[in-house]
Amino acid sequence: MESVLVTRRLAPGVVERLAPYVEVTSHDEERPMTRAALLAAVRGKAGVITTLDDVVDAEFLDAAGPGLRIVANHAVGTHNIDHAACAARGVLVSNTPGVLTAATADFTWALLLAATRRLGEGERLLRSGEPWAWAPTFLLGMELTGTRLGILGMGRIGQAVARRAVGFEMPVAYHNRSRLPAADEAGAEWLPLDELFARSQVLVVTCPLSAATRHLVDRQRLAQLPAGAVVVSVVAGVVNEADLAESLASGHLSAAAVDNFEREPAVPAALLAQPNAVLAPHLGSATVKTRQAMGDLAVDNLLAVLTGGQPPTLVSP
Ligand SMILES: NC(=O)C1=CN([C@@H]2O[C@H](COP(=O)(O)OP(=O)(O)OC[C@H]3O[C@@H](n4cnc5c(N)ncnc54)[C@H](O)[C@@H]3O)[C@@H](O)[C@H]2O)C=CC1
Ligand SMILES: O=CC(=O)O
Questions:
Q1: Which CATH number, 3.40.50.300, 3.40.720.10, 3.40.50.720, 1.10.443.10, labels domain 101-279?
Q2: Can you tell me the ipTM of this complex?
Q3: Could you tell me the pTM of the whole model?
Q4: Can you give the residue ranges of the D-isomer specific 2-hydroxyacid dehydrogenase catalytic domain (predicted)?
């Protein structure tokens, strides 16, 4: 029997599905494995289910040895994985797209609403015990009806965010590497990057982290947004977190919301210091149903490769 490694506790019943086919080593904890433990545990494995915290690079692949055939990432993003290094060794990479789209789009809207309507500030005020009173000028936020929503990265999640905007009567614009007929037909307007920034009162960032997108949303881009704009990001590393904090502190942005940070679990102190920043601990796909589906899809991919089947969601090669 071949053996596999699962680097984190998964939804109930998911790891048990592997048992009839492979010998399983499971790190059944909510915290990631240390690097040393990960490198030791992956030795001799034919497959591994990883999370975004597990860096899969040449060192990892060397530690695994020549028998490794599949890295099944328990995420849609794969920026923790060196795809070229995997391809060079014939190691397949899969992810968990689609099954997390609705949950993540819903949570993007939770962030968008919390930021524009100052929910975090209000909640903290009540919990502080400080006196407060309803007043015509108290904690006023941004009204969404009629406000332009810009989406950077109109993929599965971006399009699901756009569909939800219909109920809020928001005009939607987007920028993507290519124009998308389906998005255009649904009423979204493709804009060049400069124009997207110049015309979005609320900007949602949903494009994957890559060499091309790292810190794409920096000081200069943030300055292009209209005064009082709101930025919502559910991806790590695309928005420069220091520049975002600076733009909030200067008053140029009225609010921001971030789920998924560049150096998790660290959250920059400069962002924590901004009362108008809504900060979430990477909760985008965190529903019972979605985490079950992500676990099942990761197992489907891993088992397909190890039993000679067709992995449903292969990323590379
Ligand atoms: N916060 C959370 O818990 C979660 C975050 N995510 C993040 O959402 C990202 C997107 O996921 P999906 O929508 O499923 O991916 P997707 O691949 O369907 O969509 C990404 C879109 O971004 C576009 N894109 C890529 N590079 C671009 C660039 N330079 N400029 C403009 N557009 C660009 C692509 O063409 C594509 O349309 C993931 O990579 C992940 O980082 C996903 C799930 C949960
Ligand atoms: O949580 C992020 C993802 O890529 O999945």
A1: 3.40.50.720
A2: 0.99
A3: 0.98
A4: 4-315
